[in-house]
Amino acid sequence: MLMNVAQPSHTPRSRRGTPPASDWLENRNAAVRNDPDALLKELVSRRGLPPTEARLLVLRILRDDTDGHMSAEQLCRALVKQDFATGVSTFKSAIYDLNLAGVLSRVIAPLNSNRAQALYEIADKPWHRHLYCTGCERLIEICDEVIEQRISHQFAVAGLTQANLDFARAGKCLACANAESVHG
Description:
By secondary structure, the chain is α/β, with parallel strands linked by helices. It has helices at about 20-35, 40-45, 55-65, 70-80, 90-100, 145-160, 175-184; strands at about 70, 105-110, 115-120, 130-135, 140, 165, 170. It has a four-stranded mixed sheet with strand order 1-3-2-6. Strands 5-4-7 form a three-stranded mixed sheet, with no helix packed on it. The longest helix has 14 residues, at about 20-35. The chain is globular, with a radius of gyration of 22 Å. This is Ferric uptake regulation protein.
């Protein structure tokens, strides 16, 4: 026997009086539409840092970059192009503060046998690893749950906590390897 159950005419609320998740998500989406930096401000605030203009600018530059990985020097060059009034030292401090707070992740990529460079990315994705082409200097993200589970297990066995840092595995992409064999 089917029963016709009347639906409540008001918006359902949780036990604590907060709107349901769908209302929260709609309010958050509306905030983002009104303020494109809303998610960046939230990301910084959740880590206990005030969302200063320098910190937000670092995050904007990384968010808007097609690759999403930049060195401190590349970030500073982008800052100069934007004619930002704050000095480069303040901007570099913002980069390092964001990294220490876990808002940015650092990836160490080898330049050659003697040198490496630190690249930064916004830490808003699940743990992932990086591959680095030494020819074209392209950084490739790989997301593999099995690899991450094995690495997490090894950290647990060793009694370590993962740092906000990754070492990119170096190699040559197919295009660079082919170009090298033709010109080499």
